Amino acid sequence: MKLKNILKERAKGISFEFFPPRSAEGKDSFMKVVNTLKRYNPLYVSVTYGASGSTQDRTKNTLTWIKDATDLTVMSHLTCIGATKTSMDVLLRDYINLGIENILALRGDPPRNMPDFDPSIGEFRYAKDLVEFIKKYNYFSIAVAVYPEGHPESPSIEKDMEYTKEKIDAGADFAITQMFFDNRYYYDFIERAEKRGIKIPILPGIMPITDFKKIKEFASFCKATIPKDIEEKMVPLINKQDEMFKLGIEHATKQCADLINNGIEYLHFYTMNKSEAFSTIIDGLGLPSVLT
């Protein structure tokens, strides 16, 4: 089912992001996580897509596993950097044949093994170009990514919002934010978006800090600020995984509760293919009754 229709029918809900297992041997453990989180009746589940299509086949296989084994609505991430219109057409027609109706359209990151790669010279320069291309098929529901603290490559918050508006106006049905750890960034972003006339749903992306070193590295790359007070509490727990996990869950739970209390009706969880943290958060907040 197309997500633009699901979001019209369900005024509240949660969703989960997964990444494709590295091999078919990981299917059983992956599907165990999917089925654990399936009981929360998510709006949809999404599967990531590596830079320059590096996980294209694995992403497609993972989406097929979920579709074949569950009744979950799936969404494929899709990056366009380095892709051609011909290769993108082949993939999108394959998705149509598979009944995959939802796409998160992303520019994607430059290949790490090509430091001089210029993303502006390909057939798809920006995510906006991919949205416009997908829109022509008149088949897919399209989502885009947005950045509460600004895209790392944007020269300013104002310019980032300008690009965001262009991307959304190209045909996006809803948006998902990059992870953030201080809700003020999200609220400020929503205010800027409303002033720009952006009216589509903007789902906040939640990532519990259960592995501080890994999340800090990722956050630095994504330009996501970890609050100073959280970092000060986390650093002494680097070698105390259980305590760090507990603190990370507490912070994410408070973050979600604050969003809900401020009228936010959708939450998107970055799972990293694990279920324990999210089951704890969802059960602790009573989300099955609050947001479903």
Describe this structure in words.
This protein is an alpha/beta fold and 292 residues long. Helices cover 46% and strands 15% of the residues. The chain has helices spanning 3-9, 27-38, 56-69, 85-98, 127-135, 157-169, 183-195, 212-222, 228-234, 241-261, 276-285, 287-290, and strands spanning 13-18, 44-47, 74-79, 102-106, 141-146, 174-179, 202-206, 266-270. Strands 1-2-3-4-5-6-7-8 form an eight-stranded parallel beta barrel, surrounded by four helices.
- How big a fraction of the residues is strand? 5-15%
SSE arrangement, N to C: HEHEHEHEHEHEHEHHHEHH
Unreliable spans: none
Number of strands: 8
Rg over CA atoms, rounded to whole Å, is 18 Å
Morphology? globular
Instruction: Specify the biggest β-sheet.
Output: 8 strands, parallel, barrel
**Lateral strand order in the biggest sheet:** 1-2-3-4-5-6-7-8
Q: Kindly state the mean pLDDT as a whole number?
A: 93
What fraction, in percent, of the residue positions are helical?
A: 40-55%
Secondary structure category: alpha/beta
Count of individual helical segments: 12
Termini separation (Å)? 17 Å
Helix and strand arrangement:
Layout: H1 3-9, E1 13-18, H2 27-38, E2 44-47, H3 56-69, E3 74-79, H4 85-98, E4 102-106, H5 127-135, E5 141-146, H6 157-169, E6 174-179, H7 183-195, E7 202-206, H8 212-222, H9 228-234, H10 241-261, E8 266-270, H11 276-285, H12 287-290
Parallel strand pairs: 1-2, 1-8, 2-3, 3-4, 4-5, 5-6, 6-7, 7-8
Helix pairs in contact: 5-6, 10-11
